[in-house]
Amino acid sequence: MKRIILGTAGHIDHGKTTLIKALTGVDCDRLKEEKARGITIELGFTSLTLPGEQKVGIIDVPGHEKFVKNMVAGVGGIDGVMLVIAADEGVMPQTKEHLDICNLLSIRSGIIALTKSDLVDEEWLELVKEDVSGLVHGSFLEKAPIIPVSSATGSGIPDLLRSLEHLVAHISERPSSGIVRLPIDRVFTMKGFGTVLTGTLLAGKIAVGDEVEILPEKLKAKLRGIQLHNSPVDHTTAGQRTALNLQGIEKACVTRGDVICLPDTLTPTQKVVARFDLLKSAPRALKNRARVRFHSGTSEIMSRVVLLTADELQPGQNGYIQLLLESPAVLMPHDRYVIRSYSPVETIGGGEILDNRPPKHKRLADETRKRLETLKAWDATEVLLLFCREAGPAGLDRARIQSRMGMDPDKFHALTDKLLSSGAVVAFAKDPLHITLPAVVEGIKSAVTAHLKAYHARNPLKPGMVKEELRTKLHRDTDQRLYGYVIDRLVKKGTIKITNEFLSLPEHKPVLRDSQKGLKEKMLSLYKKGGKFPPTRKELVEKLNIHEKEAAGILGLLVRENTLVKLNEDIYYEALSLTRLVGEITDHAERHGELTIQSVKEQTGLTRKFLIPLFEYMDRSKITLRKGDKRVLKKPG
Predict the structure, then answer these.
(1) pLDDT single digits (tens) 502-547
(2) First CA to last CA distance, the chain
(3) DSSP state letter for 181
(4) Which residues contact 576 (CB under 8 A, 6 or more apart)?
(5) Rounded-to-integer distance, Cα 3 and Cα 57, Å
(6) 451, 457 in Cβ contact below 8 A?
(7) Which domains are seen in the chain, by residue range?
(8) Cys-Cys crosslink for 502: which of 27, 150, 321, 464, Cβ 3.0 to 4.6 Å?
(9) Bridge partners (DSSP) listed for residue 353
(10) C-alpha–C-alpha distance, residues 429 and 130, integer Å
(11) What is the pTM of this model?
């Protein structure tokens, strides 16, 4: 059986709710205020079983101009609309506004019901039909049947049901694949169950026991129960009105406009670019940075409109815009939206989301228009390559790609497999998948070798550049996994080599100048003569009257040759002298069972300046084990 949702539309007091009651037996006005005032304020929900046993969900919307925002929240997830027009009044302001909204949201199927037909004669009825035909000319309802009905007498109801059945038969249901997304349109508590959230599942499938996430608050909860048409089920799929009972979620934490999805699959945004159509009926031009009311899904968010390809739009014109949202929303490419003016509040236009993570755009620039035209054409391969190019060395991961492109897993895998096999993109990590362009990889390779070449020229005595230090010299957005991927390939190819933590070009070897060879021997001589009282680094520099950087280079070379041993930045020992000193100290420990700063000071004559780094060296070398202020010899094994 198809999963179809129908919604009503039309002016206040034209009999939408009464007609739904005549069709289903259910009064969708549930609030006390609605009963008292005799008008629909909030969305109403029920279901209708058609003569052929097809069951469809019904969303009844308010018709009053003050509650158009509720109407937009209701029709965002419908598959077809029943435009309701009272025969005794004909086309009215919200008839036109609701039709505009349905057009902007790209609803493509519907019928027209002329209610209260028992209150007019045939001649008047024909005039109203002509008026309605003029209204829907050029819209998706141009060829829709216009069916006179009376909820009071039942006249025309069988014809309406047959037309609804025909309509539903020709509507394609939503695919159950895709990224799970359910915009919340109602939140309430039910005794014995707790918090219940309702909405239309736009894509995917969820089941009892699944963990879900509520955005933009990023609340996670387990799905305790599901109902469809007031009956419990174990799962629900796209195109069904669904009530969800979530474990551990308080009603106050959730509101209409929030979105339910699977954890870590979607990301809220506060900036999007979009295609925009300003209605011909808009009362004035749209100026850059106008403050507006943005409607998408079930949310209404105050926003600023940045016109990207024009200084202003006149009624009937279209263009590209950037929307700066004042609060986060969950939006995906191809989502439809409606814009209403800030004041007075009226529908002025809408369109289609093109990018939910746009880079900064330069207004009125050719490159901006070219980028937006690529997004509008939406060739998946071209769009993904565009996003990869813009991501640069940060790369793109699976979740980011799916969220930005709105792709279901099967299509995503097919696309990335094609691009990987052709070499158009490179996978630098696989679990989860991260991709980038070959040109980005080559750019990092070139940067790595260039940095190493320059480093060797500046530091001829050093064995190379520390791997992490080199990463900090690259673009700040470079993904660490991409950096590791590039280094691994450069090493395997022999373009660079890695020794311990140092990266270098293969031909690089630390080389001393002739003058430095003599200096090296002088330095080593001072350390040998010093024995267990070697010169500090500062003393060494002063005695030899050399530059600190030159001293550091030769000291590093002597350490790598195992001639000197570095205890800390200031204290170095000649290797043989250190071995003798450590032996002397361990003999003392074996005799006395422990070591203290004071006892070793008395034995060796060393000051704390030498003893503290010496003890720390012996701890690092696993010769001793610290116990409070004392050391003991570490036992083998």
Answers:
(1) 999 999 988 777 778 888 899 999 999 999 999 999 999 999 999 8
(2) 72
(3) B
(4) 528
(5) 8
(6) no
(7) 5-169 (3.40.50.300), 182-261 (2.40.30.10), 269-370 (2.40.30.10), 379-436 (1.10.10), 439-504 (1.10.10.10), 514-633 (1.10.10.10)
(8) 464
(9) 274
(10) 63
(11) 0.82
